[in-house]
Design goal:
The protein is an alpha+beta fold. The chain has helices spanning 2-22, 131-135, 145-161, 166-187, 196-208, 216-222, 227-238, 242-260, 265-271, 277-288, 292-298, and strands spanning 27-29, 38-45, 60-61, 65-73, 76-79, 82-85, 90-94, 99-103, 106-114, 127-129, 139-141. The strands form three sheets. It has a five-stranded antiparallel β-sheet with strand order 2-9-4-7-11, with helices on one face. A hairpin with a 2-residue loop joins strand 5 and strand 6. One of its GO terms (molecular function) is sequence-specific DNA binding. This is AraC family transcriptional regulator. InterPro entries: Homeodomain-like_sf (IPR009057), HTH-like (IPR037923), HTH_AraC (IPR018060).
């Protein structure tokens, strides 16, 4: 009986908080043509699994629009009183004035954004009503996880670069993600679905052999296409060349090694398929605006 009371009181407390938090929800209609997302913040969480044993996050009020992309997971997301199991490749959408609580363990990329520039300074963004937004579920099991992961990585990269043109590219990437998610929901759509099987085979080959010297000719030969045709359909599907994808994947592996090992920069460069330490450092600095050693130092705990 005591155990039941404790659970019941906890439940009542959560319900009270959710009702209290929802009290000031501002609901507005918005035309799709008015979408002009502005990034507020973005980050990668727990990619090195250091917080894999972390307990639940506190219940909180969502103040902006949030997309979260799950990389690995054994956890859950509580949203508006419903508990969602999270799987790798899930795309989560949280809307302003909703209540949420994360239950690790999981690792993810997250972006927070205002849907228009006019509301970016609002404490809590409006909850917009729109045909496209209304169709998107709280959790979407994406059909092409790599496609979405690349979008999140490019947003994070531009956020770090913070160049004058970054805001335009980030806006286009957020719109691309909204479009792709909507197409999956409404049309059972896979980005460039006519080539999905071929692209998946090429990606699997590159990720399986990223430590080796790979050329466009070698990859296209593996999937029985001419180099020019393969290059064209890959870029149509992934919005980047095969070489760009391979470099991004190698950099992702290198960043992980920089964080979780004490390997030298030279060892990491060769372990991740770069031809030399100098080339690795050049590519890393071009993409991250800092050297590998600076990146490692900036993520070390004091």
């Amino acid at each position: 009986m005591i155990k039941y009371r404790k659970v019941k009181r906890f439940y009542i407390k959560i319900v009270f908080l959710e009702v209290h938090m929802k009290r000031n929800r501002i609901i507005k209609e918005i035309e799709t043509i008015e979408f002009a997302p502005v990034l507020i913040r973005t980050y990668a969480y727990n990619l090195n699994k250091r917080d894999w044993g972390k307990g639940k996050f506190p219940l909180r009020l969502v103040e902006t629009y949030e997309f979260e992309f799950i990389i690995e997971s054994e956890g859950y997301m509580n949203l508006e009183g419903k508990r969602y199991p999270l799987k790798p490749g899930d795309l989560c959408l949280r809307r302003p004035s909703e209540t949420t609580m994360g239950e690790p363990p999981y690792s993810c990329y997250m972006i927070s954004f205002a849907l228009t520039n006019e509301t970016i300074d609002d404490k809590v963004q409006p909850y917009y009503v729109n045909e496209i937004l209304d169709a998107l579920p709280a959790v979407l099991s994406t059909k092409n996880p790599k496609y979405y992961e690349v979008i999140f990585l490019k947003i994070l990269e531009q956020y770090i670069k913070n160049e004058s043109s970054s805001i335009l590219l980030i806006r286009s990437l957020i719109l691309e993600m909204i479009f792709a998610a909507y197409q999956e929901v409404k049309l059972d759509y896979l980005p460039s679905s006519a080539y999905a099987r071929i692209i998946k085979s090429a990606i699997h080959y590159m990720e399986d052999r990223y430590t080796e010297k790979l050329t466009l000719e070698k990859i296209s030969e593996e999937i029985n296409l001419s180099p020019s045709h393969f290059q064209r359909i890959f870029k149509t599907t992934m919005n980047m060349s095969p070489n760009d994808y391979l470099i991004n994947y190698r950099l992702m592996k290198a960043k992980k090694l920089l964080l979780i090992t004490n390997d030298t920069i030279t060892d990491i460069s060769f372990l991740c398929g770069f031809e030399s330490n100098a080339y690795f450092s050049y590519v890393f600095k071009t993409h991250m605006l800092m050297t590998p050693s600076m990146y490692r130092k900036s993520h070390q705990k004091p």
